Amino acid sequence: MVKKVVIFDxxxxxxxxxxxxxxxxxxxxxxxxxKWIVVALSNxxxxxxxxxxxxxxxxxxFDVIVSAKDYDTLKPxxxxxxxxxxxxxxxxxxxxxxxxxxxxxDRPDTDIKCxxxxxxxxxxxxxxxxxxxxxxxAYEEADYTIKFYDELYNILKLKKIANEENKKxxxxxxxxxxxxxxxKVI
Length: 186
Hints:
This protein has about 190 residues and is α/β, with parallel strands linked by helices.
């Protein structure tokens, strides 16, 4: 099976002002249901990253967590992507093709540039403090730009699996069947 990897920045990509964006958990669920390897890559220290992910209750969605500070560098250093890919390959025992790797972040000068310099796909999320920052060179131009994570379904060719698992079929009064949502999950 071809391994697909998505690398998320944290601040203003997944949350802002200590509030997790509403569409983060659903997309993380779908990525996991679609068998993607999910990575957190941040310039924050590892303890801060762990605390943020734990406080938001999303740490278990991440297969690999990388602090740039653990490697004495910061984004946009493209060596970070190679470190991530090595960790993913160690985890899965399979080589990862860069054409199946996506960097998602809000900052063109760090997140997008890191991905571009490393030769992977990039998606910029227009959220938070850097939503209006214009790219200053070609390395800061994302392959795709989104505002909401549901836009990733088409870009990443995700199947809606996780939410489908919460559906049940119910027979109505006329004897026909319809799909309904399990109320406990929603």
